[in-house]
Automatic annotation (TrEMBL):
<dbReference type="Pfam" id="PF12811">
    <property type="entry name" value="BaxI_1"/>
</dbReference>
<feature type="transmembrane region" description="Helical">
    <location>
        <begin position="210"/>
        <end position="232"/>
    </location>
</feature>
<keyword id="KW-0472">Membrane</keyword>
<feature type="transmembrane region" description="Helical">
    <location>
        <begin position="54"/>
        <end position="76"/>
    </location>
</feature>
<feature type="transmembrane region" description="Helical">
    <location>
        <begin position="175"/>
        <end position="198"/>
    </location>
</feature>
<feature type="transmembrane region" description="Helical">
    <location>
        <begin position="141"/>
        <end position="163"/>
    </location>
</feature>
<keyword id="KW-1133">Transmembrane helix</keyword>
<feature type="transmembrane region" description="Helical">
    <location>
        <begin position="88"/>
        <end position="108"/>
    </location>
</feature>
<protein>
    <submittedName>
        <fullName>Bax inhibitor-1/YccA family protein</fullName>
    </submittedName>
</protein>
<feature type="transmembrane region" description="Helical">
    <location>
        <begin position="244"/>
        <end position="261"/>
    </location>
</feature>
<keyword id="KW-0812">Transmembrane</keyword>
<dbReference type="InterPro" id="IPR010539">
    <property type="entry name" value="BaxI_1-like"/>
</dbReference>
Amino acid sequence: MRTSSNPAFRNLPTGSAASGSYAGFNQPQGGVPGYGPPQAPAGSADRPMTVDDVVMKTGAALGVTLVVGIITAIWAQGQAAADAMGPILGAMIGGMLVGLVLSLIIIFKQIANAPMTLAYSAAEGVFLGAITGVFELMFPGIALQAVLGTAAVFVVMLVVYKTGAVKVTPKLTKWIIGALGGVAILMLLNLVLGLFGVNMGIRDASSPLAYIFSIVCIGIAAFSFLLDFDMADKAIREGVPAKFAWYVAFGLMTTLVWLYLEILRLLSYLQSD
């Protein structure tokens, strides 16, 4: 399999089904168009993964994040209105740390099941909801704009992938991974220097660099979807077991979370002018 910028997709196992037996996101092969030949019985634990599996599991994970996020955001707005920022900060840090720990466990142990993926989604819902609640209080309407923006980018990149407008080549893959690594280094450097009072300007709303950096991050996150789709597509065609649809859903969620945060941040810059 081709390397992905998303660590969740780098070591997906290959199932026993022959490569090409099940259609991927954009390669129908016999049977029902877009879904491949007749599938194995639904109760078969080792049947190959299908597009439906990926869509349903990703939808479930996203649904959990949205529900938990909305509830947390409403709670955070109430806390912020009462000037009680302590609990909100605790929810942010708690959600972030729990999500980080769960993601590392899922990635390194390649855990592909509903409890872990949905638990990660719930933790990210708390993290994103707490942040969104505060931003929504400061900039009314920003949450809906960020959600719609994230959805729009996801749909556009899915269409781009399915139509083949941009081919996922080894060169493109290396470029995206390199760009992602560069952004990660800048973020880490900015965090470390910030502890010593040094402001690089990449996260400062008053600096043009902040706008440029957020736009670059959004662009990299968007192109990362192409690699995610390609890896999921190959996993389907190579007969990866159906249970790994939860692993694919987790991988897609990590990119969605990053994209949403960057769009939310950019919108806050624009509205703070």
